[in-house]
Amino acid sequence: MELHEYKDRYSTADVSRDDAGVLTIRMHWRGKSLMWGGPPHQELPELFNAIASDRENRVVILTGTGETFIGLSDGPNPLADGRANATVWGPSIWECNRLVDQMLAIEVPMIAAVNGPVNAHSELAVLWDVVLVADHAYFQDAPHFPGGLGPGDSMQIVWPLLLGPNRGRYFLLTGQKIHADEARQLGIVGEVLPGAEVLARAQEIAAGLARLNPILLRNTRHALVRPLRRAVADDLHTGLALEAIASMSAREWNRFKDEGS
Questions:
Q1: Helix, coil or strand: residue 179
Q2: Is pLDDT at 261 greater than 70 in this prediction?
Q3: Is the dihedral of CA 88, 65, 110, 138 positive or negative?
Q4: pLDDT tens across 7-38, in order?
Q5: In the β-sheet with 130-134, what is the strand arrangement from edge to edge?
Q6: 81 contacts 43 by C-beta, under 8 angstroms
Q7: Is 123 known to be catalytic?
Q8: What is the DSSP letter of 146?
Q9: Is the dihedral of CA 68, 96, 56, 218 positive or negative?
Q10: What is d(CA 182, CA 86) in angstroms, rounded to the nearest whole number?
Q11: Per the CB 3.0–4.6 Å rule, which of 45, 183, 200, 209 could disulfide with 188?
């Protein structure tokens, strides 16, 4: 697949590539910070698949828009409220499996330029090879356990892997925010920078990488993500199924609570 076939296809991401082969993805929603929901859930797996299929890409940068990398809307969550049945969950599970799988299938170095807080789908930042964050950023898994959902869409894999089993479970069960400086101390991110400098630093690193042997780039990326791909293959689908079952039980649980009161 060639760049012109996919770069203008998506409503939640602007895509461009320079002459050195550095592809930049800027996530957004109508020109403002991306709020997670159906459109990025549907589009980003397709975008990652297209990027993975384009051999002209030599490095990939992912960043956000405005002050937030990925945020959440204030409205009710039908998944947490138990208003999504198996017919709704079916495509959602399929999309989420593809989101992580296609991201890890990209065979070139990947740099996350995290321009602000990450409230949801933090794998889109912390599973990249080089993670650069703005000094006002933080990481939180807000929509899952704190919001009434099981952390099954790779959060149960990613955070215990990054933090260790006990710290990872604490992070997921308490809704903890890990701010930029602490994230660096914990080994989650590579550099903390003023917000205005994050993308420029990502571009600097990408330019250096893009000058290297492309087979070296691809084979190194492939070697680095093999453990992640094995972990995802083992546990992602099961985690999503458990998340869906817990979600579908919420309406019955809420009715039981109301009757008990």
A1: strand
A2: no
A3: negative
A4: 999 999 999 999 999 999 999 999 999 999 99
A5: 13-17, 22-27, 59-63, 110-114, 130-134, 191-193
A6: no
A7: yes
A8: G
A9: positive
A10: 39
A11: 183
Hunting for tokens 């070697």 — which residue is that? 223
Residue 193's nearest CA partner among 130, 124, 133 is: 133
Distance CA 178, CA 170 (A): 12
C-alpha–C-alpha distance, residues 230 and 138, integer Å: 27
Residues 207-258 have pLDDT tens digits of: 999 999 999 999 999 999 999 999 999 999 999 999 999 999 988 887 777 7
Strand ranges (E), 65-220:
110-114, 130-134, 138-139, 178-179, 191-193
pLDDT tens figures, 173-214: 999 999 999 999 999 999 999 999 999 999 999 999 999 999
pLDDT beyond 70 at 4? yes
End-to-end CA distance of the chain: 58
Q: Write down the catalytic residue from 43, 95, 107, 123.
A: 123
Q: Which of 43, 40, 3, 44 is nearest to 21 (CA)?
A: 3
Rounded CA separation 120/130 (Å): 19
Measure the CA–CA gap between 69 and 258, rounded to whole angstroms. Answer: 37
